[in-house]
């Protein structure tokens, strides 16, 4: 299958380009940036020297000629662009009959009103919100394989939902909101320069209290209220979430262990039991690591991912595999 990547110079786009370039059955047919991009004409490998020889491919402006090239040559279009950009681009490529994999949050939420509240814009294509399929690969694989528009799950939600859905589906959660404390590396904020992601400014600090856009994303796909607080940490890659769960009275450790068995055969999930996950254990890896410990009806679950792999490009590739009816982990294990 032939893949066009829009936003290929960004952190998730470049990561996805490297995965597609190494994949046995996928071919890059174009790497694109905005029409005004200062990087147009440059080789992607000149921005990311670690990909020299693998990605000696030019970044092209998303011009009328580019649209024609994509219409004629691409099967899959990946949008590694900001929400505002993806929201506008997705229908254009869907109208061409392409399968669209959007790494942004532009089509993840069901309710158009949530875009006013959490994203700060009125959604221009609410009809597509009904048709988009949420790309949380381990949980919606059949629906993903049939979809035209895949809204690849967010980075923080990917860790949180894989940690919590086993408990929710087994009916073990009490009515209390689940509390999620998450720390992300700075690549989570993208490649463009900004004061809050400046090397000298980043330490460890919370942001987005009560109003981060991943709060409705997690609670919508969990079916349970959450209190989610992200933090920005002074490291490049990785997300670690410490999640506080109040279980229903009388839930035993054996029931909790049994609930997690639903993920035991998922190739990109590593259940670690009482061994706590770490950022070091997942950086440059395609996995979600999940550990848990219980005391009475309190459970602490810890989940870790690489935000650019399982949290973005890795999961996008997993979704492309599912749409192509290949094993989800093809081209991911051993990256
Ligand atoms: N970074 C992460 O960990 C994760 C990111 N995501 C999501 O993925 C998307 C991309 O994130 P990230 O890689 O961090 O972003 P970056 O800021 O690193 O990259 C954005 C890319 O989009 C390009 N771009 C900007 N405007 C346009 C346009 N109008 N048309 C075409 N290309 C354009 C940029 O190039 P130029 O400006 O030069 O044109 C650049 O290549 C976002 O929606 C983000 O929320 C999801 C999960 C995790
Ligand atoms: C550290 C940092 O800034 N992280 C980003 C989340 C990563 C991301 O791009 O969000 P999506 O998964 O929704 O696309 C943020 O909090 O906005």
TrEMBL record:
Annotated compartments: Cytoplasm
TM segment ranges: none
Family annotation (Pfam families): Semialdhyde_dh, Semialdhyde_dhC_1
Pathway annotation: Amino-acid biosynthesis; L-arginine biosynthesis; N(2)-acetyl-L-ornithine from L-glutamate: step 3/4
Gene3D superfamilies documented for this protein: Dihydrodipicolinate Reductase, domain 2, NAD(P)-binding Rossmann-like Domain
EC number: 1.2.1.38
Keyword NAD: no
One GO MF term: N-acetyl-gamma-glutamyl-phosphate reductase activity
Main localization (coarse): cytoplasm
Domain Semialdehyde dehydrogenase NAD-binding: 2-147
Keyword Amino-acid biosynthesis among record annotations: yes
Keywords (A to Z) from UniProt: Amino-acid biosynthesis, Arginine biosynthesis, Cytoplasm, NADP, Oxidoreductase
Reaction it catalyzes: N-acetyl-L-glutamate 5-semialdehyde + phosphate + NADP(+) = N-acetyl-L-glutamyl 5-phosphate + NADPH + H(+)
Active site (UniProt): 155
Organism superkingdom: Bacteria
HAMAP family per the UniProt record, alphabetical: ArgC_type1 (MF_00150)
Family that this chain belongs to: Belongs to the NAGSA dehydrogenase family. Type 1 subfamily.
Function per UniProt: Catalyzes the NADPH-dependent reduction of N-acetyl-5-glutamyl phosphate to yield N-acetyl-L-glutamate 5-semialdehyde.
UniProt name for this protein: N-acetyl-gamma-glutamyl-phosphate reductase
Organism: Pseudoalteromonas fenneropenaei
Organism taxonomic ancestry: Bacteria, Pseudomonadati, Pseudomonadota, Gammaproteobacteria, Alteromonadales
């Amino acid at each position: 299958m032939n893949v066009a990547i829009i936003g290929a110079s960004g952190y998730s786009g470049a990561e996805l380009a490297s995965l597609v370039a190494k994949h046995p059955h996928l071919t890059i047919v174009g790497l694109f940036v905005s029409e005004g991009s200062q990087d147009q004409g440059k080789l992607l490998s000149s921005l990311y020297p670690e990909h020299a020889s693998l990605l000696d491919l030019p970044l092209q402006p998303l011009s009328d000629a580019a649209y024609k090239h994509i219409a004629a040559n691409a099967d899959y279009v990946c949008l590694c662009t900001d929400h505002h950009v993806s929201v506008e681009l997705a229908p254009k490529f869907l109208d061409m009959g392409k399968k669209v994999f959007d790494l942004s949050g532009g089509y993840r939420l069901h309710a158009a009103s949530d875009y006013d509240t959490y994203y700060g814009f009125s959604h221009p294509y609410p009809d597509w919100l009904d048709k988009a399929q949420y790309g949380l690969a381990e949980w919606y694989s059949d629906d993903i394989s049939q979809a035209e528009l895949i809204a690849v799950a967010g980075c923080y939600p990917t860790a949180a939902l894989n940690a919590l859905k086993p408990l929710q589906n087994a009916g073990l959660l009490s009515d209390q909101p689940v509390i999620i404390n998450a720390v992300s590396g700075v690549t989570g904020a993208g490649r463009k320069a900004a004061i809050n992601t400046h090397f000298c400014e980043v330490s460890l600090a919370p942001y987005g209290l009560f109003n981060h856009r991943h709060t409705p994303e997690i609670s919508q796909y969990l079916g349970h209220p959450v209190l989610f607080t992200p933090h920005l940490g002074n490291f490049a890659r990785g997300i670690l979430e410490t999640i506080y769960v109040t279980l229903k009275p009388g839930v035993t450790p054996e029931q909790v262990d049994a609930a997690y068995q639903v993920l035991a055969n998922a190739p990109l999930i590593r259940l670690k039991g009482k061994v706590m996950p770490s950022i070091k254990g997942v950086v440059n890896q395609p996995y979600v690591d999940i550990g848990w410990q219980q005391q009475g009806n309190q459970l602490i679950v810890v989940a870790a991912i690489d935000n650019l792999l399982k949290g973005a490009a890795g999961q996008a590739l997993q979704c492309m595999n599912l749409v192509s009816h290949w094993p989800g982990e093809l081209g991911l294990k051993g990256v």
